[in-house]
Amino acid sequence: MTHRTMTVVGKALPRFDAPGKVTGTAVYAADFAVPGMLVGRVLRSPEAHARIVRLDFTRARALPGVRAIIGAADVPDVRYGGAIKDETVFASGKVRYIGQPVAAVAATTPEAAEAALAAIEVTYEPLPAVLDLAAALAPGAPLVHEEYADYTAIPVFHRDGNVCNRARIVVGDVERGFEEADRIFEHRFRTAMVHQGYTEPRAAVAQWDSSGTVTVWSNTQLPFEVQNTLAEILQTPPSRIRVVVPGIGGGFGGKLRVGVEHFAALLARRAGRPVKVATTSEEELTAAYPRQGAVIELKTGVTRDGRITAKSGRICFDTGAFAGSGPGVASVATLVLAGPYRIPNLHLEGLAVYTNKTNCGSFRAPSGPQSNFAVESQMDIMADALGLDPLDFRLRNIVREGDEGPTGQVLHAVGLEECLRKAAAAIGWHDRRPEPGRGKGLACGWWTTTGGSSGVYVKINPDGTVALNTGAAEIGTGALTGAAQVLAEELGVGLEDIRVVSADTFATPFDFGAQGSRTAFAVGGACRAAAADLRPRLFALAAAQLGVEPEACTLADRHVVAGGKRIALAELARLSQQTGGGLIAQGTFIAPATTYDAKRVEGHAYPAFHSPSFHAHAVDLSVDPETGEIAIHRYVVAQDVGFAINPTYIEGQIEGGVAQGLGQALSEEIVYEGGRVLNANLTDYKMPTMLDMPRVESILVQHPGAAGPYGAKGVGEPPNIEPPAAVANAVAAATGLRITTLPITAEKIALGLRDAQAAGT
Ligand code: MOS
């Protein structure tokens, strides 16, 4: 296609799902209802690790309004799970964390369901529990899964006792690298377990029909993944499981795997009536899929003039009682630990470790904030120790065009230097400590655009509009608006002409799902493929009508145009419906593989970053010396997005990612004591509100990549990565106090300043 000026992509056009969402008419899964629906509720373990010696439903069954009660004995005996099949629907034999499902009930009212839960009799015999990383890794520690070696797992993983994966990157010779260094720095960091904080709880309605097909309306990010997992759990072919996403009030990785869908489907099958299950805030904070807490140890060698010669390190993730995303997250972490730096010698490990806590999962840039907090905090510590400016120190070591990534991938479209320079300039870096108690911090990083395939069906309607049918869900990011913009651009129509049908496993083509910053990138890629299929057909039809050559045709303004003649797409669609079967196309996309050096990795599920993005954050803040409270004056993000398909929604992702990142940086922590969550409510679990948010300034840097539409890279996850490190570095600049654990609460700062004063520093 001859290139013309872009009219739809690159424009800040309003999203197609906005009117329903801003007027309140959009239907989310938590709103969704069908006639005759029962209420499902889950009974959860009060013990961190215990044998179940008795489970008795007799009293509960006799209560009014109770229609079904199920436990492990009532469901297929199946182990499931993405990376390691270590999960069961209900605890069987023993419980492994406080909050683990033990039974579920369906009743006519919420009160009847609650009464039934209270009437279920369970006797537990407590077992020794491992409640943190140190306990789980200690020699002779009790095993969370004694039978772990018998579980089905992705073969690449290195498993050993409570370690459910040990991923490794080895490059060069770190010992020799340390010998070449003038200074060696060793530090240890710790981060807290945090929740995604989506506005809508996990919710699902399940209904079986007389053919033995179950329809599940759920707010999952991955309808096809849920379909397959339900097929395993229900022992029913996937073709009898229809998963439909009505709407999602946020996911951020917390809605990737079955959460409540299986309870709804199993209870509905037992009760013979539709069942709805939705979680409470307490269930969310005790038994969802939060971000793993982590301990990170880093040892880095640097020459006097600021060149990094070697880095070794280890990040241990507390993944909870089941592996969840942990083994993969541990792999990804090693690439983040390497950082966007040229380092000739690396020895980096990521461990996912079982403990008797909730099953951690994926959260926007899984492993990113934890690893980046350590890497970028240490960069500033080392710069200070060497008497170098932290910006200059980074610029001396960052990757540039054509460099190798840590596992040998060749890096292209590397916008990192531009991001760093622009973020620093915007924050006024030349004046890092403008007044006592005020300081500026900088952090940078890199991230992947997740692969996986996407398919779309596209149909030109006889009124000239275009139907876009995709298996991906719109999870609130605007990514499907981005994909629709790509389709509109490629077909010469307006965004307002695109009608989107999405996320229904019976009706829409396969999509790897709304995860990993991939949706606009991959669905957009599929749209381009579908348009490429349609164009010659449109041109052939139009050429015959207009009496021109197909080669002379182009698409513009809802018409095929050739010289001075033109014919509307509407007319071509009508014509084709009468004589040619209609204008329907499919398009598929899968990101090209990224080559890497397989000899450098072990136990690794994610050895390269595809279409990597690069970013730098800068923050200007003040610290109250008495209370330790932080006031953020300005926050700047410079992000290489490749190509900005819709600048407004990218800025939205940046602002939202920074808000979540500042929550992790400053206040959020799921606090465990003795295996129990102490703050399982949204008053004590402190997420930032709009009153806490600074103004976020976004600078979109555009170094187009080779794989994505118009050069676009993934944009959704990156803004969540750098805020903790940027804040830690600014706090150090403002006060001289280095906080190495998240969250950086006012209390930690106040106590730290007091200690420093007492020590006379
Ligand atoms: Mo994401 S953590 O891949 O939704």
Structural features, described:
The chain has 761 residues and is an alpha+beta fold. Strands 3-5-1-12-9-10-11 form a seven-stranded mixed beta sheet, with helices on both faces. A six-stranded mixed beta sheet has the order 8-13-14-15-7-24, sandwiched between helices. β27 and β28 (676-677) form a beta hairpin. The longest helix is centred in the last third of the chain and has 28 residues, at 519-546. The protein starts with 17 loop residues before the first helix and ends with a helix. The model has no long low-confidence stretch (mean pLDDT 97). The structure holds dioxothiomolybdenum(VI) ion. Dioxothiomolybdenum(VI) ion binds next to loops.
Which structural traits does this protein have?
761 residues; 29 strands; globular
Beta-strand percent range? 15-25%
What Rg is obtained from the alpha carbons, in whole angstroms?
27 Å
Number of helices: 18
Structural class: alpha+beta
Task: Give the topology.
Layout: H1 18-23, E1 38-44, E2 50-56, H2 58-61, E3 66-71, E4 94-95, E5 101-107, H3 110-119, E6 121-126, H4 133-137, E7 163-171, H5 174-180, E8 183-191, E9 203-208, E10 214-218, H6 223-234, E11 241-244, H7 261-271, E12 275-278, H8 281-287, E13 293-302, E14 308-320, H9 326-338, E15 346-354, H10 368-386, H11 390-397, H12 416-427, E16 438-447, E17 453-460, E18 466-470, H13 479-491, E19 498-502, H14 519-546, E20 554-556, E21 559-562, E22 565-568, H15 569-579, E23 583-590, E24 601-602, E25 613-623, E26 630-640, H16 647-666, E27 672-673, E28 676-677, E29 696-701, H17 723-735, H18 746-758
